[in-house]
Design a protein that fits this description.
The structure is a single chain. The chain is of the alpha/beta class. The protein has one domain: Creatininase (Rossmann fold). The protein is built from 8 helices and 6 strands. The strands form 2 sheets. The chain has a 4-stranded parallel β-sheet, sandwiched between helices. The protein has a two-stranded parallel sheet with strand order 3-4. Helix 1 packs across helix 8 and helix 6 crosses helix 8. The longest helix is centred in the C-terminal third of the chain and has 20 residues. The radius of gyration is 17 Å and the shape is globular. About 40% of the residues are buried. Keywords: Hydrolase, Metal-binding, Zinc. InterPro entries: Creatininase-like_sf (IPR024087), Creatininase/forma_Hydrolase (IPR003785). Belongs to the creatininase superfamily. Pfam families: Creatininase (PF02633).
Length: about 230
C-alpha cells in the first residue's frame, strides 16, 4: 500500500422517506468510491456506515425511526482513531467521500487531527456537482440541505439499486431553510413522510448522468492535484 491511493467512503444510516432504504447515504459514496478507484488505480477501504445525527433542516431529524447515529464527539474520536491507524500504510493519497450531510464538519475536523505526509482530499459528493448541471437538470432546486430523499438521491438509487426503490414519489412543497434549528419541531410541517423537497421527476437516467458527472469531477480533481500543485 506504500504510495497508493486509498479511497474511504463515509456514509450513514438514516430514514429517507417511504421510498428509499436507510442505507442510501452509505450506498452512494461506496458506489462512487469503487468507480473512482477503478479510474485512478486506487483501493477502496470498507465503508463507514454510521454517521453523525440527522438534523431537522437537512435530514428530517430524529423524529423518524431508522436513523442510527453517534454523538459528534464520539464520531470525531472514532474517525480520528481510524485515520491514525492508516498511517503505517504510508499511503500516497487518501481520498474521503462523504455521503451524509451532517458528517462533513466532523470528517474535516478528524482529518485536521491526523495530517501527516500523505496527500488528503475529502469532499461530500454533492460538492462536486456543478451549479450549471443543477440548473439544467433539477429545476426548482431547494439547496443540498433540503435534497434529502429528493430528486437527486432518488435518481441515484434508481440507477444504482433500482430493486430497493419503492414506487411512492412524495413531494414536500415548502423545503426548510438551511442552518436554522427549531425546537419543538412540527415534523409534519418540516417534511412529507421524511422527504424535505420533492421526488417527482426522479429517474434512473438522471441518476446515471449525475453519478458519472460526480465521478468525472472527482477524477479530474485527483489527477490535477486538487488545483494546488
Amino acid at each position: 500500500m506504500r504510495g497508493a491511493t486509498l479511497i474511504w467512503p463515509i456514509g450513514g444510516l438514516e430514514q429517507h422517506g417511504p421510498h428509499l432504504p436507510l442505507s442510501i447515504d452509505y450506498d452512494i459514496p461506496v458506489a462512487l468510491a469503487h468507480e473512482v478507484a477503478s479510474r485512478v488505480d486506487g483501493y477502496v477501504l470498507p465503508g463507514q456506515p454510521v454517521s453523525a445525527r440527522s438534523l431537522p433542516q437537512s435530514g428530517g431529524g430524529l423524529h423518524f425511526p431508522g436513523t442510527v447515529h453517534l454523538r459528534g464527539t464520539t464520531f470525531i474520536n472514532y474517525l480520528t482513531d481510524a485515520l491514525r491507524s492508516l498511517e503505517p500504510l504510508q499511503l500516497g493519497r487518501l481520498v474521503v467521500i462523504n455521503g451524509h450531510y451532517e458528517n462533513e464538519a466532523f470528517v474535516f475536523e478528524a482529518l485536521d487531527e491526523c495530517r501527516g505526509d500523505s496527500e488528503i482530499l475529502a469532499f461530500s459528493w454533492w460538492s462536486l456537482v456543478d451549479d450549471d448541471w443543477v440548473a439544467e437538470h433539477v429545476p426548482g432546486f431547494p439547496g443540498w440541505h433540503a435534497e434529502h430523499a429528493g430528486v437527486t438521491e432518488t435518481s441515484l438509487m434508481m440507477h444504482l439499486r433500482p430493486e430497493v426503490v419503492r414506487p411512492a414519489r412524495p413531494d414536500h412543497e415548502t423545503p426548510p431553510r438551511a442552518g436554522i434549528y427549531v425546537h419543538p419541531l412540527d415534523a409534519k410541517r418540516m417534511s412529507t413522510d421524511g422527504v424535505l423537497s420533492r421526488t417527482s421527476g426522479a429517474s434512473a437516467e438522471l441518476g446515471k448522468r449525475l453519478f458519472h458527472h460526480v465521478v468525472d469531477n472527482a477524477v479530474d480533481l485527483i489527477e490535477s492535484g486538487y488545483g494546488m500543485r
